[in-house]
Amino acid sequence: MNYEFFSRKRMRREQRFVSRKGAKQQSSIRYLLLLWLMGAVACQKTGFSYDNVIDNKETDYILTDTLSVAMKTLQYDSVPTSGSGLLLIGNQSDPYLGAVTANSYFQVIQPAAIDIPVNGSGYDSLRLILRPGGYIAGDSLQPQSLQVYRVTQKIQFAQTFYSLYNNSNFATESTPLGSFTGIIRPKTDKTVSVTLSDVLGRQFFTMLRDKSPDITAGPNFLDFFRGLKITPGPGNASLMTYLAQDTALTMRLYYHVNEIVTTAKYVDFKMSAPELQFNQITANRSGTPLEKLVGPVKELPSAATGNMTFVQSLTGVGTRIDLPYLKNMQQLGQFFKIMKVVLTVYPASGTFSNSSQIPANLALCQIDKANNVTDTIGYGSLTIDNQYNENTYYSYDITNYCNTQLTADNIAARGLYLTTPGGAGRNSLDRLVVNDQQSPKKKIKVQVYYLLYK
Fold first, then answer.
1. What's the superkingdom here (predicted)?
2. Beta partners for 196?
C-alpha cells in the first residue's frame, strides 16, 4: 500500500476537519452518507455492515490537499494558424519561452474590371495598406520595422489537410518589394502604409490599362502574382496584429488621369482566400528553461525546467498534469467515495506584471498516453488580484474526471492538459508559467474532499 500522497500526521489532522464543525452539520453529513451506503449495498466489501456507521462514528468527511501531482511541458510541432483574421508580425523575446518571430502570408485578388484611358493616364505609386488590430507584445513607443516580400510558390493546403500551420512555409523572392520603419500606435492608428516597388506598380498599371489576360481573367492572376509575405525588419523588437480582411488589407495602386483637370485615382487589390492567410511562427529557446525542448525531444518534466511548466499555444507549448497516486486513495478504508476535487493553477510569482500578459481563458483537457488531446473538461475561472497579483489563479472542478480515473484501465487512463481554448491563444504571445509542488509558494494545488468509512 502506497501512502506517499500524504503523511499520516497530516491525515490525522485533516480527519479532525469534521469534528470541529457543529453537531448539526456533522449529523447532516452522516445522514447523507447513510443514504449513499444503503444504495451501495450491492457492491459492499466482504464483512462490511452499514448498520452501525453512525453509532460507531467511524465515518469521516475529509479534505486533503497533499495529493501528488506530476507535471511536464509538452511541445507540439504543428499549430493551426490559418484563417484567424489577423496577421501577426514581429519579434518578441521572453526569458522563459525564448525569442519568437512571427511572419504572415496572404493572397490578394485583382480588382473588378476597370477602364483606364490609354492616353492621359499615368502611374503614381503602389502601397500596401495595413490596419492595426490593437494588440502588441512589446513597446509601442519604439519604432516598428516591416518588410514585404513577393511569394513565388502557390499558397495552398497540403493534401488531406484543411489548415496551414505555424511551421508552414512558401518560397519568396530574396529582395523585399518594400519596407516600413516608424512608430505604430496599435490602438489609435487607423492605417499603416508601406511603399512597394515602382517596378511592380508600373507593371500592374500597364496590365490594368491594357486589360492583360493575366489580370482580367479570374484564376490567371493568382498564377502571375501568388501572394505576399510580411516579416519584421532589422531591429524590430515588438509583435503586433493587423486585420486580415478584404476590407482592411489591400494593395493599393494610385494613378492619375489628365482630363480638363488632373484627377487622382486608385484601385485596390484586396486580400482574398482568408482561409489561406496564416502566420508562420518560429521560436529560439536558447538560454531558457526550455532550451532542451527541441528536435526529437517533445516533453520535459518540471524537475528539468526549474520546477516549472509552461503554456503558450502560439508556439505549441502546453502543460501536462498527472495524478499518479489517485487510485491508491481507495485503499484508505473499506468504503471510500470522492465527493469533490478542485484543481487550482497559480501563475508563478514574478513571471507576469499584470493579468493582460497571461491567458484570459485556459482550457483543461483530457490527454492520452501519446499526448493526444481527447476531450475538454472545462475552462478555468480566472480570479484576478489586480492589486498585488498574489491571488490570481484559475480553478477547475475535476470531480468527474477523478472518479472516472479511479477505475480506468491502462488504455482508458487519461492525464490533464492545460492550453488556451480554440484559437484564442493563437493570435497572441500570452503565456503562463506554473510552479510544481516542489516550489515554496504559489504552487499547483489539488484539493480532494472525500467520505471514508474505516
1. Bacteria
2. 178
DSSP 169: -
Report how far residue 11's alpha carbon sits from residue 17's, in angstroms, rounded to the nearest whole number: 10
**Residue 203 CB partners (closer than 8 Å, separation 6+):** none
Hey, CA dihedral for 77, 79, 80, 81, is it positive or negative? negative
Sign of CA pseudo-dihedral 406, 409, 412, 415:
positive
221 shares a domain with 131 = yes
Section 66-74 average pLDDT = 93
pLDDT of residue 260: 82
Q: Which three cell numbers stand for residue 423?
A: 484559437
Residue 83's nearest CA partner among 339, 354, 276 is: 276
Domain stops at, among 224, 259, 284: 284
* 235/246 Cα distance (integer angstroms): 30
Q: Give the pLDDT confidence score for residue 183 in this predicted structure.
A: 93
Q: How many CA atoms lie within 13 A of 103 on its CB side?
A: 20
Residue showing cell 511551421: 167
Structural domain boundaries, residue 348:
8-75+298-453
> By three-state DSSP, how is residue 90 classified?
strand
> Rounded to whole angstroms, how far apart are CA atoms 431 and 94?
10
Domain assignment of residue 3, yes or no: no
pLDDT at 47 over 70: no
CA pair distance 172, 412, nearest whole angstrom: 47
Where among 259, 284, 309 does a domain terminate? 284
Task: Provide the pLDDT for residue 402.
Answer: 94
More confident residue, 214 or 56: 214
CB-CB neighbours of 399 under 10 Å = 15
User: Could you tell me the pTM of the whole model?
Assistant: 0.83
